[in-house]
TrEMBL record:
It is an enzyme of class 3 (hydrolase). This is Peptide deformylase. The active site is at E175. Removes the formyl group from the N-terminal Met of newly synthesized proteins. Requires at least a dipeptide for an efficient rate of reaction. N-terminal L-methionine is a prerequisite for activity but the enzyme has broad specificity at other positions. It holds the Pfam family Pep_deformylase. It comes from Streptococcus urinalis 2285-97.
Length: 204
């Protein structure tokens, strides 16, 4: 039984044991494009990946299943070398503690996603980045594009082109890096991890 067959079984919910860690060669491979129209297997895989993110952000489910919270997951992290990513970025409550009108600012399973254009301006998260495949803290600014335009296909095979900025842009770039065999810490300046280049945006 292939890894994908195991993960898409109706009874299976993705957990931390399914996620491979740094050092595994799949994380350094250039993942293969998925063929369109999508197979049922690839559609179910995308749905399972999204469900994992929802479970990981649900305090009760996360504790019950022993999950680390995540906003993105790429198929290579499940030892499946395919160009599939899931992103789930929650909106936060306002300054008065009111819940957001929309639960998520970004909720999408993307097949064969790619960055087709980007800003000259760089950006990095103030607190750095983490990764479900990395069980250690790596400090430093992960330098990315402040704004990106991304093309991808949805599970129906429809093509989309979206513009992203700020945190959402960072999340999607992190996941697209995974399907290109790039880890987030590859983008940290090793000599000076907290160096800020001219015009670089630091996102709190």
């Amino acid at each position: 039984m292939s890894t994908q067959d195991k993960i898409i079984k109706a009874s299976h919910q993705i957990n931390m044991a399914d996620i491979i860690r740094e050092g595994n060669p799949t994380l350094r491979a250039n993942a293969k494009e998925v063929t369109l129209p999508l197979s049922d297997s690839d559609i179910i895989l995308g749905e399972k990946m999204m469900q994992f993110l929802k479970n990981s952000q649900d305090p009760v489910m996360a504790e019950k299943m022993g999950l680390r919270g995540g906003v993105g997951l790429a198929a290579p992290q499940l030892n499946i070398s395919k160009r599939i990513i899931a992103v789930l970025v929650p909106n936060i409550e306002d300054s008065e503690g009111n819940p957001p009108k929309e639960a998520y600012s970004l909720q999408e399973v993307m097949y064969n996603p790619k960055v087709v254009s980007h800003s000259v301006q760089d950006a990095a998260l103030a607190d750095g980045e983490g990764c479900l495949s990395v069980d250690r803290v790596v400090e430093g600014y992960v330098v990315r594009h402040a704004r990106v335009t991304v093309e991808y296909f949805d599970k129906e095979g429809q093509k989309h082109k979206i513009r992203l900025k700020g945190y959402n842009a960072i999340v999607v770039q992190h996941e697209i890096d995974h399907i290109n065999g790039i880890m987030f810490y590859d983008r940290i300046n090793q000599a000076s991890p907290f160096a800020i280049t001219e015009g670089m945006l630091i996102i709190e």
